[in-house]
User: Fold these one by one.
Assistant:
Number 1:
Amino acid sequence: MVIYLPGNSSAPALDELTPREIVEQLDKHVISQDDAKRAVAIALRNRIRRQRLDPEMAEEVLPKNILMMGPTGVGKTEVARRLARLSNSPFVKIEATKFTEVGYVGRDVDSMIRDLIEMAIEMIREQKVEMVAERAERNAEDRLLEILMPSQKSHGIDDPDDSTARTREKLRKQLRAGKLDDRMVEIETKGRGNPIEIITNQGVEEMDINIKEMLPNIFGGQTQRRKMTVLDALEVLAQEEEQKLIDHEQITRQAVERTEQAGIVFLDEMDKIAGREGGRGPEVSREGVQRDLLPIVEGTTVNTRHGMIRTDHILFIAAGAFHVTKPSDMIPELQGRFPIRVELKPLTKDDFVRILTEPKNALTKQYTALLDTEGVELAFTDDAVEEIAQTAMLVNEQTENIGARRLHTVMEKVLDKISFEAPDMKEKSVRIDSAYVRDQLSTIVKDQDLSRYIL
């Protein structure tokens, strides 16, 4: 399972984005696949529209789940991931093949909702911590200064001239200037307790019975004295102060609401569980997994350590290659829960060229930035980009077609020598042209057997 944390974005506020503007935001990161972008843009805009309805009507408006079909490496995951970042929604990606039918050893389908609420809590906690960070740092400074120079009042002595306070302010300036970073201090912190792992056939999620409250000393109720540098002590104390300043119960309440109203679950490899009873082999019943997924997608209540989570308004985006199977191979009830079907097209050479150059996180930009840290100025010519794209297409045709992921492999091979020698290079300006690309790849591309292993 992969969990993504939405980053800060300079994009307009979500409420202000029209479907066309949502697509424009996605265009910055995902090349081609206009149909998929339109589908997720409409789904996201419908969420905004639903928030403007009166509560009674809003309760009846259910999300239109999306089923993406297309070969690997064409952008299915990237579209969903960028959508989640754009909407600042809790998002989890999980492979449907990780689930097993109830009664078998493995992950149960409820676990993805538990993962989603944990994701929401982490998101909101980070936001709250950012809000109190300045105040927490100030409190941590005060605690540290009390250790470095205890106030007269702490010893029951009056200080009418306030001389200690003035001295402490001078000390604060030195602290902020980093002049005290290496001094050793002894601070009192909350103990982390001894790690305890409980393994049951129900999974860790089902074992939350307030053990922390029953055994507080084991779970960090005790304090301990630790020696460390002032720099490290300031960080530890700031973290403690942050935890004091944020309301954990409020975080949980907000996380539950955000999960229920804005959560997005990306179910990958849905084609691997598509099928009816009658299949052979050791694998657990695929239809059984589908039937377990059905109530979650349809709308049910899942018990988590943070309370009951309703899944009625969580958006589910399913994806799969559907080479061997097809959506109609899923059980009819589950088919009906994914009313929006989008077919993603295989990528062309021109798409590869655009992927290498246009997105904000384009591969050529990534490698240029990485080598710039070594003082190496990397420049790709247009014909070099064309050659890399052509090679990736050729290898995809001759071996397994893994879409845009092939570009990563080809780029690594092209820049292998430069990446290795970069710290020691005397000539810090490097121009990558088509001749250089062919020279680095010629031996591998000519030998098809070799290219199968290396590219």
Note: The chain has a mean pLDDT of 83.
Number 2:
Amino acid sequence: MAAVSPPKYVKHILVSLLSRGYAAYLVGGCVRDIMLGVRPHDWDICTAALPEQIMEIFPGSRPTGMKHGTVTVVVGSRSAEVTTFRSEGSYADHRHPDIVRFVGDLTTDLGRRDFTMNAMAISADGLIADPFGGTDDIKARCIRCVGDPERRFDEDALRMFRAFRFSSRLGFDIEAGTLAAIKKRAPLAAGLAAERVRDETERIILSPRPETLCQVIELGLLDRYLNGNARLDPDTFHRISLLPKRAPERWSALCRLLLTSHAIASVKNFLTALRLDNRSIRCCCGAAELLACPCPASAFEWKRQLSRYGTDSVCCSARCRDALTGTKCYRALRAVLKSGECCSMNDLAVTGDDLMRLGLRGRELGEMLNFLLDYVMEYPGNNRRELLLSLASASEE
């Protein structure tokens, strides 16, 4: 018996299906979380009802995946995915089943899932269905495939990344047979969509154990994006966990470590291949350049960095330097940012239009703006319109 306390809208869905004669269970990740004593964020339900029958019972539902038996049932302002019991055919692309067959029993449905800890179900009255030993594996803190692990990874190569993602998040070990199958089937990862690989990689580096990525790399799951024969240090990779759980900082730290281990030659090429957004790429590229230089030794040097690279890259580089090398750079940067002193063109007391009225154009205009910015960053108390216009006028005489 499990101490299950799903929200009222989830209970309503379960009871509505059961009252019409259709078996219905909580399934997948929410059951795993319940067994771990964690409140689930999402509640998934599987049922013997066909998609069309689910739509009849819940008229306001959305047919989000009818081909695969999935309906998003809406109850008031809340929703949950309800999926018909199913089995699956072959996976020609190593990612999606070629055919889905709706079935009438729960065990067949659970047997198609990735890991034993995700192949459990709980009935409305709290009884656990666990035909593959997920409860024991959770107690042993073990990630094990349902059935033949090589077959599971042949079906969906992304499951190899998911194994490491769960390991990094939960602190579980990957069972020896499952790990051996990952090593054997690693070349299949090259065919995965870059966006999927990016998302799984990001989840790992945002986890409490980002050093798990070292094993991902050593087994060859990222060979499509990295140079071969990189020497990685898990202890150093663990330092990524000292950073805030924000993607820009952690991607920047990862790129720094990959550069120094010669796993990549270009941050921009690496992140572009993984389809990161342009803002993140600019931030990480700037941070990588800054991390290759000494930490600024004065407020003026910090302001020079801020004016050239922008706040995002400079903050990322300072936080990464502190995490990776144990310095206190971010404290010094924060003092500069709190001062409110000028460190960008937008902070100058004069604008390009002001200087154009003095007759400056083209390259001369840009050079004067840069000169005034450097001057004000070194002498912040002199960021006054009249004084700066006077300096600009004097230089033209």
Note: The first helix runs from residue 8 to 19.
Number 3:
Amino acid sequence: MYQFEITSNEAGQRFDKYLHKLLPKAPSSFFYKMLRKKNIVLNGKKAEGKEKLFTGDKVSLFLSKETFENFAKEDKNSNEYLLAYRNLKGPEIIYENEHMILIDKPAGILTQKAKDTDFSVNEWLIGYLLDKGEITESSLHTYKPSVCNRLDRNTSGLVICAKSLKGSQDLSLLIKKRKIRKFYRLFVKGHIEKEKTIEGYLSKDESANKVSISQIQTENASYIKTRYYPLKQLSDMTYLEVELITGKTHQIRAHMAMEGHPLLMDPKYGDAAFNAKYKNKLKAQGQLLHAYRLEFPVEEELLKGEEHIFTAKEPDAFLTILKEP
């Protein structure tokens, strides 16, 4: 017999969906047969599979070792996640509760891995929770904590992460409905004196991993909206705060370049001569773009009436530029 107790990370999902995650190689017909014959029971009683799971519920599977292992998923060993947590330097926790974590990601680190050998914030997060004992290797079969929004490798700042299934569902809904306001800080070429809202339609060239923006809607183009606020005028650039009203790939970088104010150190949409002027001084790995602030809806349930505005301090490269008269 195999027995599992539902944790707060797993609560809130249907019983049959939980079973599919626990034994992903098993067909639906197998579960319905096992439930009907009471070879799989919930809290010691016969179940249909439609039940909603709650923290503390007990799932019992009266299956042979061979059957269980044939249908179980071959997952990564927890050591890989712990290795990422202990070796990936730089991520810092800004806020944490039972359902969510906000992490300040340094530039140069992936949010999610691009290839199997990568370490990313996603693996670091799981390793952190394993190290704390909040999750176990077996619990990763039925729910895996993960990041909810992605930043480019060379973009620093706040990453939203879900610890529990409830956190994942609620955060995904908030992001989809654009109820979390996202503000970035950056330096752009030239002087900007007034705040402005800009709109357009973004298309992506997948082969080149580059986007283009038009004022006219075309096939497969997505509507985008960006608002920027000047914070400080410098010798040949402006320090801006930008609100990402819609969130598309490279939106800020391409939108500001279209405005004639490309980001400092942006190798893809930037100004080569402008970048070269600061290259040796800053030693930046890419565009200076920092996810600085997140504003959650007031009284959002996930925050339980706590503080709902979070910031991540600017990186050293930003402070170096801002020190200039």
Note: Residues 104 and 252 are 19 Å apart (CA to CA).
Number 4:
Amino acid sequence: MTAHLQATTAMAFIPNPIKGRGAVTQPMGRFETRSVEPLDDGWGSLEDSVTERVETQLFEERARSIISRNDSPDVGFDQSINPYRGCAHGCVYCFARPAHAYMNLSPGLDFETKIFWKPNAAEVLEKELRNPGYVCKRIHIGGNTDPYQTVEKDLHVTRQVLEVLLRFRHPVSIITKGAALMLRDLDLMTEFAGLGLIGVAVSVTSLDDELKRTLEPRTSSARMRLRLIRELASRSIPVTVMAAPMIPFVNDMELEAILEAAAQAGATSAGYVTLRLPHELEGIFSAWLEAHVPQRAAHVMSVVRQMQGGKHYDSRWGVRQTGTGQYAQLLAQRFQLACRRLDLNVGARRVHDTSQFRVPPRAGDQMSLL
């Protein structure tokens, strides 16, 4: 990986959205010290240069550590692993987009076309788990970027991480939209399930394929995600459906339908989050609205701000996931009523067993005679 990557030329708006890509903007990251503004020479060169196919680029990022820790009360885990930085799924609403600014790259198209992967993730994980001071707590995979994004098909980083966790009998949870790829790893999921060491959350944003193609272009179809839920449930793997994010007047009208379809497929618990637009993401999402639903754009953003205390993003713990105000309260009531009707979130959630954690012997280690 080069020490410094240059962001693609930034512009406020791409005239014709690129097929298979979510962002229709390429804003400069907030840490950039330079400013680039494209110049239209009148011969169509500007439009041609930004609407041509943009290939995905991969960059190796050697990990020095792999387990991240947090103390946020908004998430149900305090240990996580993200095998990738950036995500080829291209979900335009992704709250992780602004993190690409730390790489001196744009949270727009760069986020979904310049992907960093950790080839030594499994090796580093094993080293950390063997540390005598390590305390076993559930590890969540995919808290920022999807572990089953399209590049995983060839790179296998997520599978290698899961293989290590299985050998250590380590509890794990996973969240994904990459249903087709997760089906590849059902053998590992089944072994985890036999030990009671796994839970999976499948994110379903919309049942409308046309909306999915622009909102989250390279994710699995809703039909495939429901198939994944059925396959997992049939193997006694606890499945949560995440209706996320709920976007006012874009997909929020689908909330009950998403929960019902997932419950019928075998999901036993559910959650939802509302749209969050930190940092550059506000401009990226606003541009997507103007490109794809211009007649609703202003109204959508108005309601988003109402849910975020008059701002585009309220970062306070306890409210950033669900918003505040009348619209947020109505959404919460709809969610609770639907879960009650569908018998979702009934009873105590399964606690992942940490008592089975063990450090397996390495090749050449002397085995105990006892």
Note: The radius of gyration is 21 Å.
